[in-house]
Amino acid sequence: MNNESPNHRVTIFELAWFFLKLGTIAFGGPAAHIAMMEDELVARRRWLTRDKFLDLVGASNLIPGPSSSELAIHIGYLLVRWPGLLVAGCCFVLPAAVMVTVLAWLYVRFGRLPAVASVLYGIKPVIIAVILQALVGLGRTAVKTTALACVGLVCLVVGLEGLHPLVVLTFGGIAAMLVAVGSRRVTATIPVLSIGGAVGAAGASFSLTSLFLIFLKIGAIVFGSGYVLLAFLRSDLVVHHGWLTDGQLLDSVAVGQITPGPVFTTATFIGYLLDGLRGAIVATLGIFLPAFLLVAASGPLVPHIRKSFVAGAILDGVNVASLALMAVVTWQLGRTSIVDWMTVALALASVICLWQWKLNSAWLTALGAAVGLIANAIRR
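RE: above sequence
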């Protein structure tokens, strides 16, 4: 193991260049991003010891938000303090946000053309398979006990009934804590989360302020995988406000999947659909701002949170509730994307490639796009 001290003092320019490059090539989701950071920063450049890197990975998983982006922010702060916190996070997110904005412009301008529609037709079933793989992988880690499995099952049922995702997460955390403390009779004050502002009437009027606040809320409360945000996006933007259709939401996820960097840049695409470049900027700022604030605030508290039995139990419950929400949204989106024998075959082939051969999801999405184009050409 490499636990040597860093070779030299890292400059802000070195930090910026590394995370700009990483944000440009980091396909494959959070696990791949973290592996790339470990290989480059620990094994090659020796900017961090492996022990310190693992501590930062753990800290990132204890707070809501995009875990790989928060890891980048943690690393920036550790190496270059406050300027590094801002530079590392922004440079990691910026390349993906720019790419997604360009794709959103192309989608708005050409999205109804047969070629683009064919690409999305082929990509959507692949996305469902990728989400299923993430769901299974996370489930093996999160469902630690029979009690947590029961909590997750209840969350799945109430999620299918349409209960707001924030309520499902709150229920999961409280239920798991009550089960865990049991006969220990631990008295704890449980914060009550207000969802009055989040559950608006369907068809609510659009404004940049409301767009910013929706994504600010999502960035501040989504635990687990980035795919969990889909449940919140659908609840707020499709069901309660009526600003997007299910098809547009899945298209947004597809674009987020075929670009490098955090899945949370789905917000950039949605913002552009709703209000052009202004909407893209506002949505991106809203969903990523909590990550910067939470990393800045949580660092000194991490050792205490790790030692807290009650906090650990609540997080376990939140994680299984997150998995339940992922399952619900996968079912809902799957109904709009797997619509004929071709999409069924694509979804099944993607599942086999992901599980049997561990094929990178970026290659699968490219393959899905190619199949969509070929299928469209054959139909002509």
